[in-house]
Amino acid sequence: MLRWHRICATISAVFLLWIGIMGTGAQLADMRALLTHAPETDPDMLMMRQHIYGPPNYAVVSAPDYAAPALPDNTDYAAGIARAAELGRAAGPDQPLRLVELRGADGKVVAHVQMGERHMMFDLASGARLPDALLPPQQPGPGFASTRSTFKALHRFQFMPWGVAINALASIALAILIFTGLAHYLKLYRLRAKGGRTAPWWKGGDLWRQLHRWIAVSASILVIWLTVGGLALSLDNVGSKIHQLLMTAKGSRAFDGDLSSPISDTELSPMTRTTLTTFHQREPGVGIKVLRLRYFVGYPQGVVVGADAQTTQHVYNARSGAVMQMWEPGYPDLNFPSGWELHQALKRFHRGDMFGLTGRWLVLLGGFSLIYLSLSGAIMYVQLLRRRRKSGRSELIW
Questions:
Q1: Which of 254, 282, 295, 303 gives 261 a disulfide partner, CB atoms 3.0 to 4.6 angstroms apart?
Q2: Residue 124 pLDDT > 90, yes or no?
Q3: Distance of CA 38 to the CA centre of its chain
């Protein structure tokens, strides 16, 4: 086991050190934003929220919604939706109505309407057109600049055409190192236990070797946690890359762009009623921050952004009341083999926020442990190599 451990470490040490440093950098950027209570418009906060509820054309939640209060309890949603559609048609009489929405802005209920390709905001009370600056902002795109996105791109080797494959291979190498390293440790521990020495930590060798052994044992669960999440994500990313190439060759459409279709005025009232009834039945006592009606890939949808702790987006079939997912029949390709929701869950597991701030701290500790193990392992290898060469043994692997 030790020989295989050394072979794998020799091949992958530089990549693992790189992944550990860049991943820890991304985690530190997240922690900075969280611990300083950065506003939702902070670049790192925006990147943390990115893609939680789908690609930009599917997600309704935007940065201001996280800090926005619930709409007033006495809001007449049916009347507000009808009024919003009326204002939109008056402003764009020759364009089809593609979405209508009620949300909060500047302390009042306002309307967001899409007429054709044009998005507009209105004051429901006065009917006045509001500045476009109040429109819900789009999710940050691939080129969005932030400390988090920079470290994440480097962590995943995105500066290379098939960097996701290198990321996956490095994750596999790390899994092998964990298995072989723990197997070697258990072998040594059994030998020591036969002589009555049962302490899980012991001294032996120089400081680099002692700390390497102690940290490897103490942080093994954390490093395994990082490896499992990272390996699953990297393999899913490789699958996504292959899937994109295959779908592009077949001419399949991607899950982006405007996939809406027009809504008639007569549909608005029953769509509103069905959406609100379903939401209140499934989420009793939860307020509403945003209510949007739309057609998406031919499905009549009611989308509610709830006023809960997570500002959760709920999507319903506005005709049947059924809960809608990201993989409904007829939807464009999502690219990820695991599906959008599971891929996002894997991200949350890998970076620790699935378990709150405690999980974040543990993952950060695991990242620092991985950096030290990669660095100390490389130093120990060089030390051994030099000693062997002095005695005439020049093999790189032994």
A1: 295
A2: yes
A3: 18
